Amino acid sequence: MKPETQSFYERAVQRALEHVVAHLDDALDLDRLARQAALSPFHFHRIFRGMVGETPLELHRRLRLERAAQHLLQTETPVTTLALDAGYDTHEAFTRAFRQHYGYPPSELRKERLEGTSCARPHQIEIATRSGLHFRADTRAYDLSHLIQGDRNMNVTIENRPELRTAALRHIGPYHRISEAFARLGDLAGHAGLLKVRPTMLAIYHDDPEVTPESELRSDAAIVIPPDVRVPGGLTEQHVPGGRYAKTTHLGSYSELGDTWARFMGQWLPGSGERLGTGVSYEIYVNNPTEVAPEQLHTDLYIPLA
Fold first, then answer.
1. What integer pLDDT is reported at residue 305 of this predicted model?
2. Number of Cα atoms under 13 Å in the Cβ half of residue 117
């Protein structure tokens, strides 16, 4: 355990939280938050989400919505103005988001306030969240210290990993559609005779979906190949650096991998005393959906350590 390392992540997320709650009227500059944390955007947002329970953008949007609800109850500000202040371009978009979170439109909340009595139970503007952080008109009323907590109980091992030489196929677009790249990878590798012995398959993700449009996200479907094997046509050679890595295992559907990544980087890492290295994070698929049921899928997650 290295307290100074844990403090590094705690301070980084604390500063980001302070910035978010103090700048609700400004568009959130996610790249700037990452730079201030001295982390890459990809790593920063995973760490923030794991420690706080939501991404900076989700937190920013929720606090704005809670502020709008409070103003509906306490002021005569027009709904259209509140919608713009909450970051919505139209009254309709604001109403949809408001109804989704509160179960009724903003006009109904204001109407009930105007028709209510002094004996009525106060309306609750707080939207349920793991962190317990809610809108406060006075930013000095925020208590951020309790939000920073690591998960040291996650099953994680530290390993010295070898360098991996891979044949990879780039996928551009939503990460959940990387299976399309794996299908194409399988065709090309199969024609080249690389699937006669069960290969090691892995995925490498390069961009943070919180700051990169889905249409521009870069990821790689890859297969480990021996040093003396030629890279098949249509694929590119990529080397995953060897070195010291933290490893955890996800058992279950691929749709829940994001939650495991969030706990790994956002809860375990800050509480571990370890620091991220300069390599890449990746997933290795020990089995696949053609072999086992979704609840039996076994995926190993690796992050590089300094």
1. 94
2. 2
Domain total of the chain: 2
Question: Do residues 236 and 275 both lie within one domain?
Answer: yes
Q: Which residues of 147-177 are buried (b: 16+ CB within 10 A; e: fewer)?
A: bbebbeebebeeeebeebbbbbbebebebee
d(CA 39, CA 128): 29
The candidate with the shortest Cα–Cα distance to 48, out of 133, 121, 106, 108, is 133
- Would you say 165 and 236 are in contact if contact means Cβ atoms under 8 Å apart? no
Instruction: Compute mean pLDDT per 10 residues along the chain, 306 residues long, and list them.
Output: 66 88 90 88 84 88 91 88 90 89 81 51 64 75 57 82 96 82 90 89 82 83 94 94 96 79 80 86 90 91 94
- Domain holding 276, by residue range, is 156-304
CATH number of 168's domain: 3.20.80.10
240 lies in the same domain as 300: yes
Distances from the Cα of 300 to the Cα of 59, 107, 218, angstroms = 29, 49, 20
Q: What is the pLDDT of residue 100?
A: 83
Q: What is the Cα–Cα distance from 268 to 155, expressed in whole angstroms?
A: 9
**pLDDT at residue 39 in the model:** 86
Enter the pTM of the model.
0.64
- 289 in the same domain as 190: yes
**Whether residue 117 is found in the same domain as residue 210:** no
